[in-house]
Amino acid sequence: MVIGDLGPMGRLLTRGEYGHDIVDELQPVAGEYVVDKPGKGGFFSTTLHQHLVDRGITHLIVAGVTVECCVTTTVREANDRGFEACILSDCTDGFVPTFRSASLDMIHFSEGLFGFVSSSKPLLLALSPLSARNRSQVPEWTGSMDMEVLKKAYAAGLSPVTVVQEALRRIESDNPEHPSIWISLAPREELLQRAQQLEEERNLHLPLFGIPFAVKDNIDVAGISTTAACPSFEYVPDMSADVVKRLESAGALLIGKTNMDQFATGLVGTRSPYGVCHCVFDHTRISGGSSSGSAVAVSLGQVSFALGTDTAGSGRIPAAFNNVVGLKPTKGTVSTRGLVPACRTLDCVSFFAKTLTDARNVWLVSKGFDPKDPYARSSPPLAALTNRSLLHKEGTYTFSVPPRDLLNDVLSSPYIKQFEKTYSLLRSLPHAEEVTFDWDSYLAASDLVYKGAFIAERTAALDEFLKHAEKKPSLLPVTAKVLESGSSISASKAFTDLYEAQRLSRLVEGEFEKCDILILPTAPNHPTIKEVQEDPFELNLKLGIFASAVNVLDLAAVAIPAGFIDGLPFGISIVGPAFREGFILEVAERIQARMECDF
User: Fewer Cβ in 10 A, N or C end of the chain?
Assistant: First the structure.
């Protein structure tokens, strides 16, 4: 039999014929991934590899038709990329029985040369305890905004209206102690109507069904003012930012828009006419910024997650200071369309959540190519699609930490002690190997963020606004000084800095050939509000010593809690190459699991 012949299951269709591609007839549930690629394997010329590693998936169960072609080719492609795959023989079929049998034999030749073959019975047996556990009674919802808790509570009958009412109650209750978290809230009646609509439709397949969230006030939401913490800049957009639309389409409920450092010019949380945000754990300490309100809202449990932005560490430093997770994804993978720019070439949407799982799930919904975003990236480079992007359960990985003399120079004494404790834990982790790294190049990139080209870019982003003198009075003096400094930078200086940034990026890219990840303190210390107000420029600059390079060098990072120092949270960041978020998150989960036992 050849392609096009009539077989026992009907005609063996040729590629491109109607019916060869079933996607038109298939309606995937929300969040389900479909490869619209008839014939051959599922990996070549698709985003399947990235989709799997983003989710931390290393093992595949494969079923389908035809064994002679699509099924076995997909398994061999998976094997080439470092995945382990097993074909379920009783869940597959083929057109020629002898060819089908030979194809399966080829896969598991020599004890799994290309993969494995099994019937479905042992798999179903192994999964049966999980199925029973999922059917067990769900405890009554006690108000937790953890996304996994909410998901189970919704499955047991919880109403999104109840969750929205609780979120609004908490915001009101926290307001006397934390009056500067929010710039605007969604109209109450509209929010409750949206929650009621979700309740009536009750599509629990939506990946973020009924999950309350906040948005930093430099990200557009249709019908709600965008201020970027500058009243005279205020406008009301007709359209939401692409990332907001994705989240709402997935079932998430927008509660409101949060406070921030004006025009995202700081890492402190004190540069806002809407009030100073303070640390959840000490009202005399800064919250961190510029995504101050978003981090504090998540830390207080007012929402399940929040959007921030990250241009120089703004999505990670507030996370560290408020004991939450802060994920900064690869530039261009989450649309920045609908974002008030700080530095267009560096800006990223970031994510705050209480847990790594929640941060990952929100990021997965948010990411995707936006052809209307000039900085969007459609797919990772081929170099990212290798077995180095996977981290198997017992897979070895390499890491580096900043040299001791550097840490002693820049960290406060309490931070030195806490990072030493973290370092001891890292060295004890199984399958982790420490290697050297070119930290000089990394730190040189941090120095570029608040100098030359990137300061000029901040000024250029607001050029039209700055031309109108009548709008300038609502600029804070510290913001005005930052933006004015960009006007005096020459074109030759700007290009010199851009050349240097590219040179450093290439050097660091080479370093990541031998080192999988960097592990470092998210911030060097935790200043008080008073200290920052007395020295607003130098202290702000120092806060980004480890964080800012991530943006200049086109890296990805996640900030996670790493214990407490005298009642104040301490945080570390795990940093890796672009498009390695899945790998970074897997390492972060290993570290966090050990910390929960040892710290």
Answer: N
Annotation marks residue 257 as catalytic? no
31-132, CATH topology level: Rossmann fold (3.40.50)
What percent of the chain has a predicted confidence (pLDDT) above 70? 93
Asked if 31-132 and 147-346 have one fold, the answer is: no
Q: Which helix (H) or strand (E) holds 196?
A: helix 188-201
Pick the catalytic residue: 89, 287, 299, 314?
314
Beta strands per DSSP E along 212-304: 212-216, 253-258, 278-279, 282-286
pLDDT digits (tens, 9 = 90+) for 28-48: 777 778 776 656 788 988 889
d(CA 32, CA 23): 13
The CATH code belonging to domain 147-346 is 3.90.1300.10
Q: Give pTM, 2 decimals.
A: 0.94
| Residue 290 among the catalytic residues | yes
Q: Is 151 a catalytic residue?
A: no
Choose the catalytic residue: 216, 257, 328, 367: 216
Contact indicator for 352, 323 with CB cutoff of 8 Å: no
556 pairs with which residues across the strands? 576
Domain ranges of the chain: 31-132, 147-346
Beta-bridged to residue 257, according to DSSP, are 184, 215
Cα Rg of the chain, angstroms: 25
